[in-house]
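Hello,

Our lab assistant flagged a job as stuck in the queue for most of the afternoon. It eventually completed. Since we weren't sure the result was trustworthy after the delay, we are filing this so someone can double-check. Below is the sequence as submitted and the structure that was eventually returned. Let us know if re-running is recommended.
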Amino acid sequence: MKLAMLGTLFIFALLLACTSPDQPPNPGNTTTPPPVSNNSTGTVNDSNGGTGTGGGITIPPEINTTQPGNNSTGTSGSGQNTTIDLVNERILGQKLIFAQTPSSPLEAYIYNIGIGQAILIRKGDFNMLIDTGKPESANQVVANLRYSGIERIDVLALTNNKPEHAGGLSEVLNSFSISEIWTNNVQPAGDAKDAYDKYITGRIPVKHPWQGDSVKLNGIKLTVLNPPNSTMFVGEDVNSIVLKIEDRGTCMMVMSDVTSSIEDRFISNNMNLTCNLLVLGNHGSGLSSDLLFIEKVFPDWNQPAAKRKPELALISAGTEEANYPNSAVLERLRLKHIPYVSTTTNGTLKVVIDSVGYNVITMAG
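-- returned structure --
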């Protein structure tokens, strides 16, 4: 009897030891908590429309209006511009993350960098740089961006790979985190190719938008008018990306280096070219801005002044080469009663667009 009782007590002690609070829980009953987003204080909208609650951090939807091309993938590496998913080369703004503030004013800075182009588009938390200027003005572009408080660039749009537009690429890539690059279908060469190889390939998503591709980012509608989606012309100028930028009823078109032959194609294809603001092609040279094209962009030119919409031509040029902007182009603008401002005489041009309309401020330097 005593032996039986001792056996029972021994078994009871073993059971207590197995349920001791010092023992870890059964692994089969554990659940791994979901990962916490780096943007835990805001909303993350995925491309399928899922939403959360919070302060409004958003991944823009895929609203590209054309069929996507081939997928392009890469692997992650180290460095500030490393990106794991290079996603589809025609879907614009797919992986961008920024605070949505569509009611904020849009600010566009056309920097005074001589014969070249560098345009900052800023609206709230969204930053876009159109071109990087020429090599000798690269440090100036970087300084201007930092002066404006820019720490990262969501979209870097290289309208072509010529030195006047992509000459400062290495300096910009080395100075800022870039989320996405848009460029034409022409293979880069020289310094531009070196910058691609060192900073971009396998690290930053590169998109090659075509005519008709469109995306809305923080209330800004960006539409690509060139290059065409059927054939690629020969040369950088005619393959330059032309962007139409629209926000709350105001439109600004950036022509890059396209020539009058591309302007004629726009007209023959009955494209909607009407805009309030036009950044002249080829830095105001005589290769662009034909009379008929000016009429199509500013259709109210022949209306009484009281009935015309506010219209203005913007010129990114410099004094290092003679006849920029071209006197014949300026005469065409005068014939159509279109006022103009140029970085050559007015310095950096700041355009502010809001719900009322737009305002242009000329700035020294």
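-- support follow-up --
The delay was a queue issue, not a problem with the job. The result is valid. The chain has one domain: 70-363. Residues 70-363 form a domain with the Metallo-beta-lactamase; Chain A fold (CATH 3.60.15.10).
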